[in-house]
Structures are given as structure tokens and as C-alpha cells.
Amino acid sequence: MGLSSVSINTEDLQFCVFDLKRGQYEGQELDKILFFYPADLPFPSQLSVVGLSEGLITFTSIFSPEAPCEVIEANRHSHVFYQAEADIWMVMVVEKSKEVESVWRIDALRKVLKEVHSLFMMFHGSIKSLLMKDPTGGVVRSHLYTFIMDYLSDFLVGKKLHLPSFRDSLKERGTIEMLTVGREVAIEVQSLVRVVESCGGNAQYHSLLMFQDLLVSTTLCPDDTINLFAYAVLRLTPHALSSRQSSWSYRGKGNSRSSTEATASFFEQHSGNSWSGDHRSILRPLQHDRWSKGKDGFLVNDIWHANSGNSTSSTPVIYLQQTEERMYLCAYQHRSLTLLFVVPVSSIINAEQGVNVVKQLILDNASLKMLKVEEKLSKGWGGENAYHVPGYRYLLVDVDQNISRASPPAKVDTLTKDSLLSLTKLRKEVDIEKSRARWDSPDHDRDLEICIRAKNNAWVIARTTRGKELYMVLENANETVLYASDAVEKFSNRYCNGAFSLD
Amino acid sequence: MSAIASSSQPVVGLSSSGALSHAYIKYPPLRYNIPGSRGLFYDDGNKIIVSPTNNQVFSWKISPFTPAIAPTSDSLSEGPILSIKFSLDSKLIAIQRSNHEIQFQHLETGETFTQKCKSESESLLGFFWTDCLLCDIVFVKTSGLDLFAYNSELNMLHLVETRKLNVNWYVYTHESRLVLLASGMQCKAFTGFQLSSVGIIQLPKFEMVMAKSEANSKPILASEDVYIITVYGRIYCLQVDRVAMLLHSYRFYCDAVVQQGSLPIYSSKIAVSVVDNVLLVHQVDAKVVILYDIFLDSQSPISAPLPLLLRGLPRSTSMGSRSNDKNGENSEVNYLSDLEAIIYGDDWNFLIPDLICDVSNKILWKLHLDLEAIAASSSDMASVLDFLQRRKLEAYQAKHLCLATARTIILERRPLSLVARVIDVLVSSYANSLKTGNYFKGSRSEKRAASTALHENIPAAGDMASASRATIIGKSFEYEGAGLEGEYFQASASSGSDLEENGTMGYLRTDTNIDTGKVPIGTETKIIEVHPPSVQADYDGLRNNLSGTSVSRMQERQLTSPVISPDEMYSFVFCPVEEEMAGEPSYLVSIMIELLRSANSEKIKVHPNIYVLTVQLLARNEQFVELGLLIINKVLEPSREVALQLLESGRQNRQIRKLGLDMLRQLNLHHDYIVSLVQEGYYLEALRYTRKHKVVTVQPSLFLEAALSSKDPQHLAAVLRFFSDFLPGFSHTSDHKAYYHLLTEMTLAPVS
């Protein structure tokens, strides 16, 4: 799968980050641009992309100052806009090709922009704050460059970047996948989480507990949970640590992922240009294969250690989104269980030593409980296909809680292209409906039910109700719409506590 | 408690500096001063003390212990008295007149008869009454045991069985039904018999350990140095080794005697008491007492040695009377001041389990534990609470202390692990009591039926028989040890009912094989028939069979136990604590989670109040993510209370409100769900739901009002139409008229 062809060094994909407030004077336009991919595109071409985007933003904000511009559908390209911070915009330009393979869902692409920006903020703080510190923009440019290139390398298949296409329409980026646990285990988990938290005394510790690539518990606010979860799945879980070969993961990397060498070469290929600066001294949290499991069960890395500015500690420091508090990030792993906990930097006086004391404290207090929890979770773990429902291919999203659950990627792969294309189309419709409803009555969720009989006689269904969305493809199903709605009802009653049952 | 302690402090002269003690005797004592008394005898079978005079015998009930109790008196024929004991049915009185004869006197008729030793070579060491089915009284002689049954018609004793062996001296307690016979040069070889209600169980012979002071010396064990005690229903024997300065303990199992370990002693004179299953070792010379709780077979004392105190002495009386200077009161004053000086006096006689007889003053003290002082003396809260939870005599105080301790450790923000352990102790103790309680209720009725069906005339005896069969020796007496006579049969029923059928069947089988030695006594003929001497071997086999399947020993806790239910934990720990700790709810939530974990592992239901409080705390702390997780994973079990609290706490948070709504829906609380839906503004959805689930309890005006406030005429029209179509007679109501009018106004408004 995954033939959406955005090959390197073509103009199939362009990606830029720019600051509206910079480069206001003629001749200084280049100063606006904080990041551009492909970096070796001539400046005039880069400027024309940024200039067009800027123009459109300025124009549309006359009518809608709050949310100026989301997308431009041109003849040959789609421009996806994302306002990352005030005046900071991210724009992705994807080529529309006649091939069916490059059918995008704009919302899915925007989620990519949002994700990379959120992760960037988590490790480096906001772009604005970096620009404040270094008005020339040199620092932010080199940070953005390494960070986004590392991020994009995850989409690299062979020599091509595969952005989320219609193939991924039964996935939802920017949501969390949760492990369903029984009450007894849930209590044990809570007990563990509470013990970890209590280790902080007056300082507020937070934790995030994962089993495999699934979230078990969190005490962080939703945004930070999403970011840490995404990072853990990318780099920290046992699955991410050992190899990236298994087809099972929330990102559904059904495609065999690129080797380290390939990603490195991808990076090197594009370095040595005006944007990258001296990337060797730059913190690269998303760089591959820099994390490993230490003897004491804690994950160690050689990313932060190498970083000159922070040489006293190899413990990563992250920014919490809501409070902008700086936190040490520690990760402990026992078999399939990963415990991430964050400790306020302000609560620790002596960086490296202090963190080690905290680690030891957590080990002393919680390691037994972790063993117990891991054992219980493993016992109840249904494997990669635990959440497969025979006959259904589904995506269930709880928008309020940013939780999603979907059919396992291997099962989604069995769907025909036609079904997936129809689903993408349907999801686009729902996206539009949703954004309209959002403007009409922000506090009131609308119920929506769409059932489509696709060309290949599959039922493609979307239901939304009070903050929950359900997308479903039923192939080889009966032809009556009654059958389809019964199928939804059954699914809803059994797996969603009746949330989608017709009221 | 504290009031008692403080009031007693100025009184006690012995230790004026911070009078602290873990055990105490309480004023007033029982006085048994009878003119012409010829000594005092302790009849532990009837729980009375007996003081004979020349022609009368006075007896005082000591259970329950009431100092003011008046003695009952019976007339008595004259003669020397070595020992005197009432029969267990209080119809006979037996008086040992010499080393060879015992005189029996019928209390009602006054008839007497005498039983003598057969040969002159043997002499009588003593005797005791028994409730063994086989016999009524046992004579202990230098040549062994004689077991007699009493024939009320002929008014004579009938020899049932004889056990031949050399006996130097013996010890017996009715509580354990165990008689230990000492033999050998050093008197350290022991044979034990338990005369339980099912028959006689002979323990394997064993020797006690005695250290030698020199190579050739052979110390001789005295009967004063051996104590039989019953703790938590287990029977132990304690033996003082004067040379090694150790107190050895042995535990009796049905087919083994196992040495348990040794406690150090610090005094040449030692006495042992048991109060509420706590072992008190009095170091008489040192005038201190050391407490042991041997429930967990631990050899370490509960707390440091402290003196025994006299409490409750009326100081004001003595002060006042001194100034009055009347003769009678003056003697009272002297008497009181004497009392203060006699703690561990030479005339103190310790009676098992918990009495002290002051022979010279002719008073009887009962020992008490100061649970509060014990609790305060240890810093290991979990084990303190564990200890308190096992107390039965002062259950209320123990419970009170447990609650107070729980509150304190939470308020002091002790580490979570400690609080968790404390909660575990309380919850598992509660679970235990629940198990035994339920077990009892469930099994009682069917059990009763089974036992009466098999042998009609002895239901109570049957219960006991099976109970003591069921487990180790002494099984049937463990509850009596707690001094709760009323619970006696309930207790044995609960412990033995499983084995009732087995036990009884094996029991009756022997009936068919051997039918000899008939000694008809009263109505219990049948029982006696099945207990001829030769049946002993069968019993041993049966006992071994049963010991494997024996019910695990559970502690019986009735209303008088200090267990704390999760409900009480909520009202007496969390509620008060929550008010004081309003500042930081996170810690308290952690404790609630620990409570839930503990309760869950013991499979105990928790009252929704606890869930509601958890929701409140989390919401107050704005930990909405965690709250969501707890609800989704059903850690906080769904209930109407929780759902309504979610709606309430979620006023600022839509997600939490939604969780509350979902919970109402999932619980099928249609009315609440619909009302809440309408409040959220989802009145159209609510209407659909009403129709689907045929809910008729919600007033149409509620929907109409909601629709009207949306200012959308379409919606209002839809709602009106809905009720017109589905609610018969709606178009004639005032609601219809009023809202129809409003609707027309709304639709006309834009036009005009």
C-alpha cells in the first residue's frame, strides 16, 4: 500500500513555516521564511509560495478575522493552512495528480501540521518565544529544520514521502488510543499512578502509563497527553525501541518503514543548505535510534547528553503546553509497560543528581506495583487484533476526549480501494458539516447519520452524536439500508455503550 | 480511655511520674470476705469462686465480672475440704475430703454419697467436672485417670473408663478441656488428654525442655510452672524454665505438640494471664508486665514492660472521709491505701485466664488492657490496627481507636504506602467478619435441620461435636474463651457446619459396630452408647481424615467486634478528614483509590457516597482527565448518585457532564436522563428518547419551555406537534393553548 507518490526533490510536496510579522520591507522577504521544504528550491520559488499564502491569508482575514484561511483548492495543488501561533503559519502544498492514489483529506493533512508543531513546542517551546530570544531567526530556523526533517522522515517509504492519504481514512491523527481494562486492573493502575504522584510531595508530578502502544492512564491535561503519547509511540514504546517493523501500531505503519540509513540519508541530502545551519549542535528529539533501555529499566538517550547547552543532564526537558512549565521527562519501561513521568524542573535543584534521586524514589515506591500492573495487563491483553470486530471496519472517535479506536491496520488493508475512496469522500463531507456546525452553535453537538451504498456495493457509514464519531465500512453486506443501520445499532450497543443507538 | 487515664493518674501512688501502663486492674474489686471462710476455690468450669465455711458454701459468679455481686449460698456438711467444685449443671457439689475420698452432695435434696479410691496405694491428686459425653467427672490419681458418669436415679457414680499411668501432678483448665499429666523423675514427661464433648483425645507424649544448671543437677518441674492457656482458640502450654530464665511455649494440635519458641523472663516469680487473647506475662519480682500477641507466632512483645496499675480508685472519697474521721470510713481509707501498695504482693494468686486473687485482703481483681496506651506505644500503625481489630472484649473502644488512628495518619499526611497498609488491615478484617457472618446466616438453618434429622434429642451437643471434630483440638472452645457465652453455639455452628454430615455419619457408623457399655444417662442415651472405650482407635482415624478438610479458622466477629465497614470509614474517617483537608484533595483521592483497591481485592461493595466524594474532590482539583478515566474504567462504579454528582461537578466542564448523562442512560434512569438532556439543550433528542423508551413521567411543559427559549419557531412547532401526535388529549390542555399562542406570535413577529 501507500503509493501516494510524493517523491523527494520534486514539487509534489512543499512545506513551509513563515512569520507574517517578519520581512515587511522590500528586499527582506526572505526573512519571513522560517522553514521550507524542499530546502533546495530556489528562493524565488519559495518566495512565490509564501507570498501567495500570505496574500490569501490577508485577503480572507478581511471576512473572517478569527479563522482566515483553511485550504485553497487550486487546479493542480491543494494548499493546506494551519495557523500554529499568532502570525506563525504553516502551509503544506500537495499536488493533485490524476492518479487516484493522491486523494487527500485536508483535515488529515492539517492534523499532520498540528502534530509537528505541537511536538516542536513540547521540546523547544513556541516559535514566537524562540524568535524573541534570537531575533535574527537563526536558532529557530535550525531547530525547525532538524525537527521537521526528522519528523518527515517517519513518512519516508523508500525514497518517497507518504502523507496520510485515503488509505488512512480509518485513522485519526492527534488522538489517543486507549487500552480497555477491567475495573480491577484499573484500580491497580490508579493506585500505581497515585503512588508515583505522591513521590513528588509538594511538587506536582504527572504521569502517563502505556501498555504496548496504547494509553492506560494519564494525569496530564489532554493536549500534553496527546503530545507525549505521540512521542512515546514514535520513539519510546518497546515497539518503537526494538524495531519499526511490526505492522501494528496506532500509526498503522503497514508499510515497512525506512531503515535508519535511509532516514539519515534523507536528512543529509537536505542538509548543508541555508536553512539547516550547524545541525550537529542542535537538539534532535525525533532523531531515530537514540533511545535505549538502561540497566535500571529507565530509558536513556544520547540526544540531550550531546547537547552542549544542557550538558549537565541527559534527561530531556519538555514544556507543558497549558502552563508552559518546564518539566524533566523520565521514562521507565518494564516489558510492555512504559511509565512516563514528568517532574517540574523548578522542583529539582541539582539537575542530574536530583533527577536520579527522583528516579530512585519512584523505583523504590512503585516498581513492585509496576510489575503487578504489567502482569495483569499482559494477562488481559488480546494482542494486536484485540479490537478487531469481525465484519466491521471502523473508526470510533471520541472528539471530546481525543480518544480513538479503529480496526487493526492489517484488517483495514483488506478493504478495497473503492470502499476507502468512498469513505474518504464521506469523511470530507462530515468534516465540512462539522466545521459549519462548530460556527453555528459551538456548545451544541449535532447528530448526523449518513449511509452510503458505494459503487462496489459496500456500505459506508458515518454517525456523529454528541462528541462521538463513528465511521464504518461494511463490505459483503446485505443490500438493504435497514441492514446497515441494524449493524450500526448492534455495534453501538456492544462496543460503545449504546452511544450511537437511535434515540 | 483518656478520661479514665487522666483521672487515675493522681491516684496511683506507685508511679506518680507519668503513670503509664498497658494493663491495669480496676477499682472496685470483688470482695469475698465471708466470716469463717475456710479458703477460696476457683471453679473455672462454672466460672465462679467458691468459699466454704463450716456448714455453708458461698459462691460468686465471675462472668460477667460485677464487683457488687452478692454470693449465693448453699448448705454443706461438715468436714475437711481440700477442694470443692460444682457440677456443670450446678446440681451436685463435689468436695474432696482427703487424698482418698470425694464426697458428693445433691444441692436440692441434700443427699450425699462418697466415692473412694479403690486401693490404698493410690492417692487422689484432684478432680474436675467435664462436659465430655462419656463421663461427668474425672478423678486424677497418682495411678492415672478415673472417668465416672453420674447416675441421678441411683445417685451414684459409675466408672466408665480408666487410664493407667503414673502421675506426679496435673494441670487442667476447663477452657481448654485439656488435662496435662506430669510424670517422670523431673516431672517433665507429659501425657495430655482432651475431654471434649465428642470423646477423649489422647495427645502424643512429649517432654518439656529444661536447662540444667550443673552437670549432675536435675531440676524438677513444678505444677506452678506450667500453664495451659487458650488464645484465639488455640491451646498453648507455657512452661517456666527457671534455670534458663525462659518461658517455653508449646502448641497443641490434634496429633502433635509443637514447641513454638521461648520468651525471656526477668523475674524468678512469673505469672501468666490472658486478657482478650493477649498474653500477659507478669514479672512479679520486677513488678512489670509484658504483653504478647501470639496470633502471628511472633516472639516479640507488643510493647515495652510496664507496671500494672490500679485505676479508678476514688481519690475524692478517701480525701473527704479522712477529714470526717468516722470509724467506718477510716478503715475504708486504710483499706484503699493498702490496695495501692499491694500491686504484685506476695498474696497475689493469678487465676487463668484473667483474674487475680488477693488472698490476704480477700478480694478479686480482674485484669484489663489499656488499648489506647498500647496503640499509642507503637509507631507501626498497620500492626497496631491489626492488633486492635482482633480485640473483642472492648470492641467499641478498639473501633473508636482504629477510626481515630485512621483519621490521624491521613491528617498527618503519612506516606501513601503506610495509609494503604492501614486500609488493607481494616478492610480485610471487615471482609473476614463478613465472610464468617454470612456463612453463619446461610448455614444455620439447613444445619439445624440436618442435625435434628440425624439425632433428634441432642441438637446442641451435636453442633459442638462436629465443631470440635472439624479442626484442631480446642476448636469448640475458642469462642467461649472470649467470654461470650451467648455466641457459643452460633460460633461452633459456623465453624463446623461443613463437616457436620461427615462427622455425624462416621459417628453413627461406630454405633452399629459396637454397642456395648451402656450407661444410660438422662436423655442422651444414644450418644453414650456410641462411646465405649474401644472406639478410641476409630476416633483417631476419623480425626485424621477430618483434619485435612478442616475449615480454615476464621475469627468470629459478631456485633461486638471492632470491624469497620467501608460505610463507617466514609462517615467517620473521610468526611471529617475531608473537611479539615479542603486545601489539597489529591492526597485524599489517592487514599480513596487505595480503599477501592483494598475493597475490590476483598470483593466488598463500597457505598456510592465514597464515589461521590471522590468525584467532588477530583472536580474541585480540576483533575477532569483523571475523573474521566475513573468513570470510563468504572473504577467509580456507576450509580444514580455518582451520575448526578458528575452533572453537578461538571457545571464548568461539558465532558464531565456528558459522562454523567451517559451514566444515567446506561443505568436506564430514563426520567433523570431526559430531564438532564433537556437541561443541556438537547430537547429534540430527549423527545426521541421518550418515545423510544415510552417515558411518560416528564411534563410536556419542560420540553416546550426549552424549545421556546431556543427562539426557533421550527423547533417549538416540532415539539408541539410531537405532543399533539403522541400524547392523547394534549391539544386540549392549557399547555397546548399557551404555547400555540406563543408560536403564532413568534412566526408573525418577523412579518410585522
UniProtKB/TrEMBL annotation, chain A:
Q: Name one GO biological process term.
A: vesicle-mediated transport
Protein name from the UniProt record = CCZ1/INTU/HSP4 first Longin domain-containing protein
Show where the CCZ1/INTU/HSP4 first Longin domain sits: 15-125
> Record's Pfam families?
Intu_longin_1
Top-rank lineage group of the source organism: Eukaryota
Native source species: Trapa natans (Water chestnut)
Query: GO CC annotations?
Result: Mon1-Ccz1 complex
Member of which family? Belongs to the CCZ1 family.
From TrEMBL, chain B:
What SUPFAM superfamilies does the record point to? WD40 repeat-like (SSF50978)
GO CC, sorted alphabetically, is:
late endosome membrane; lysosomal membrane; Mon1-Ccz1 complex
- GO terms for biological process? regulation of autophagy
Please report the stretch or stretches of sequence annotated as the Mic1 domain.
555-724
Q: Specify one Pfam family.
A: RMC1_C
Q: For the Regulator of MON1-CCZ1 complex N-terminal domain, which residue ranges apply?
A: 40-155
Q: What is this protein called?
A: Mic1 domain-containing protein
Which species does this protein come from?
A: Trapa natans
